[in-house]
Amino acid sequence: MKRLIVSFCVTFFLGLTATIFGQDDAPLSDGAVAIYNIIADSPDAYAETQRDNSRLFEEMGILIAGVCTAISGNEYPGEIQFFSMFPSVSSAFSGLEYTLTNSEVKDLQADLASSRKLLNTETMLIVKGYDGEIYENWATRSVYVSPADPAAYLEGMASLEKAFHDNGFSDTNIMVYQTVASGATSSHVAVAVAPSLAKLGEMFDSLASETWAQEAYAAILASRPVPVSDKAYSCQQVFSAI
């Protein structure tokens, strides 16, 4: 599929400015993501429970939702992220409001209270989107960072993704989020997406061994300090309207 990189500036009422990178005909090329950081007694059981809520997800306007279990870098056993992607920050905030006012959602949360602990919620703008295959199961590495030069960081991520695609990693992607209302963590989150944990590991083996990867990665390292957080996840889809 021919990839089209589109760049433009969006200024928010909060004074935030971001450059958007993405393929304009891909459903996840932009928009927003809402993340619930949770400790679950059983991540798989939690995911199964969420699969029964497709009608609620449709009413909330969610494009896709999933459960990602932290397998490296986690601070607690059973640490997961329940994420849902929306067409915009406005629709993401409306979805969060829905969870506060809908009686059915409140009942569901009460039922889950004994088997999971909600740590916090995050809302983020997608500034470099996803145009790859929609997987049922996949792996990610999420790096929370506050780049000194956000524009250079985004350009570096786009260049690194292209380098991966040109060197045998066409089934991988790199997304970048900009935090909107996510607490005092970082300004951006980079998410490497691969079809399996093994493939995800191969991506980062390349950063240590391949000149093409190291050259592309150098621009990223120059634009950001040490990451605030760095975790790998095993993910499973629980809902898709795509």
Describe this structure in words.
The two termini are 18 Å apart. Helix 5 runs antiparallel to helix 7 and helix 6 packs across helix 7. The protein has an 8-stranded antiparallel beta barrel, surrounded by 4 helices. A two-stranded antiparallel ribbon has the order 1-2. The protein has a single domain, classed as Alpha-Beta Plaits. It contains 7 helices and 10 strands. The chain is globular, with a radius of gyration of 17 Å. The chain is α+β, with helices and mostly antiparallel strands. The N terminus is likely disordered. Helices cover 34% and strands 34% of the residues. A hairpin with a 6-residue loop joins strand 8 and strand 9.
The rough form would be described as globular
CATH class categorisation? Alpha Beta
The radius of gyration is 17 Å
Structural class: alpha+beta
Order of helices and strands: EEEHHEEHHEEHEEHHE
CATH topology grouping: Alpha-Beta Plaits
List the domain count as a whole number: 1
Number of strands: 10
The major beta sheet can be summarized as:
8 strands, antiparallel, barrel
- What is the subunit organization of this protein? single chain
Query: What is the CATH architecture assignment?
Result: 2-Layer Sandwich
Number of helices: 7
Helix residue percentage: 25-40%
Strand neighbour order, sheet with most strands: 3-5-4-10-7-9-8-6
Low-confidence stretches: 1-22
Arithmetic mean pLDDT: 89
Question: Beta fraction of the residues?
Answer: 25-35%
Distance between the amino and carboxyl termini? 18 Å
